[in-house]
Amino acid sequence: MAEKIDFSKVRFLIVDPNGLALQMLNDILAMLGANYVRRATDYDKAMAVIKEGGIDIVITERDLTPLSGIDMLDYIRKDPASRDRLLPVIVLTARSEEPFVIEARDHGANEFVAKPYTVDSLYKRLAAIIAFPRPYVNAPTYFGPERRRRQQPFNGPDRRGVDPNATPR
Amino acid sequence: MAGQKVQIIQPSGDLRKRAVNFKTGFGVVLSAGETQKLQNVVEKSSEKFVRDIGATLRKLREDLAALPDGELLSLAMLQRVGNDAIDIKGLGGTFKFPLLTQIAKSLHDYVLQIKTPSAWNAVIVGHHIDALYVVLAQRITGFGGQIESELLAALRAASAKYK
Fold first, then answer.
1. Are B12 and B65 in contact (CB under 8 A)?
2. Residues B1/A158, Cβ–Cβ less than 8 Å
3. Average pLDDT, consecutive stretches of 10 residues, N- to C-terminus, chain A (169 residues)
């Protein structure tokens, strides 16, 4: 029997300054069966909800005012006052160029969806977060989900300490 | 980095325990029927998208037309154009208007690179807005044909030339 996802058990915060984009995302989640969806149109309102707690997944646009979705990620992942440093965050943004993808990844986003998006692409990211959550990495320069998605065999004592240009043993 | 350890933290699994089951909800991998159901939600918002973006473009056209001859676009106006362009870029393709997304991206890229406003800015911005308006008014879904592709190339060429 195949696994299913019951979205009525998932509590969402969705953040987008564009009313139409926010409404459409809300409608998609409602169609999926989500009945707990908090909405915010700017950084401050979103942060108020995050600080209250009780959210399972955040879906946010990168470009917010007065601060950005990346600042929100920084608070969640790094601030000592953060209630849940492992809170899954999807960055859903029209800033789809490569530097923005890298920025979101390096600040600890779980998933990145470029606008314009298809419902299928969004759903795949949601399903990945809920059904196949990745471990988190706490390193001196990074806190967030494991950035390697594929496990590659390594024959050596310490992969991180090895010169990437060296010939494998 | 010696002595600084990397810690791997397993996710709690609480969300998975709560939401994943074998009885109710959507499949972990969507079936064609489930995808269609979700696609219908987007299509229901399509008319609102056309209305909202149409109103945005009309207002931009009015404000550009009201600009006195020879007056440069203000930085505030350029910022507003950039914000509207990124919104249209992000929404167009979702509503089956990928040509809108491409023109809006060209407009956003153009506005973003302006360091010192010049008289050309209003002309190039105006052509982009007119093109967006026509695509929307004519309901040109998809990427259009040869004319649309030439139009896009012309807008990009003009943007590169008249900074």
1. no
2. no
3. 94 96 95 97 98 97 97 97 97 95 97 96 97 95 85 61 52
Q: Which residues of B are less than 8 Å from A137 in CB distance?
A: 6-9
Q: Give the pTM.
A: 0.89
| Residues A129, A123 contacting (CB under 8 angstroms) | no
Residue B162 CA to residue A153 CA, distance in Å, equals: 53
Tell me the three state secondary structure of residue B112. Answer: helix
Best of A1, A7, A8, A9 to disrupt the B interface (most B CBs within 10 Å) is: A9
Kindly give the pairing relationship between strand A111-114 and strand A57-60: unpaired
Q: A141 phi and psi, to 5 degrees?
A: -115, 5
Q: What share of chain B is helix, strand, coil (3-state, %, to 5)?
A: 65, 5, 30
Q: What is the secondary structure of A110-125 as a DSSP string?
A: SEEEESS--HHHHHHH
Q: Which one-letter DSSP state was computed for residue A100?
A: H
Contacts with A118 from chain B: Cβ below 8 Å = 94
User: How far is Cα B75 from Cα B111, in angstroms, rounded to an integer?
Assistant: 10
Q: Which chain B residue has its CA at the smallest distance from A10's CA?
A: B19
CB A95 within 8 Å of CB B86: yes
Query: So what's the ipTM on this one?
Result: 0.87
Residues 6+ away with beta carbon under 8 Å from B89: A94, A115, A116, B100, B101, B104, B105, B108
* DSSP assignments along B20-72, one per residue: EESSSSEESS--HHHHHHHHHHHHHTHHHHHHHHHHHHHHHHHHHHTSPTTPP
Cβ–Cβ under 8 Å, residues A20 and B91: yes
Whether A2 sits inside 8 A of B26 (CB atoms) is: no
Q: Is residue A111 within 8 Å of residue A90, measured between CB atoms?
A: yes
Residue with tokens 């490569």: A98
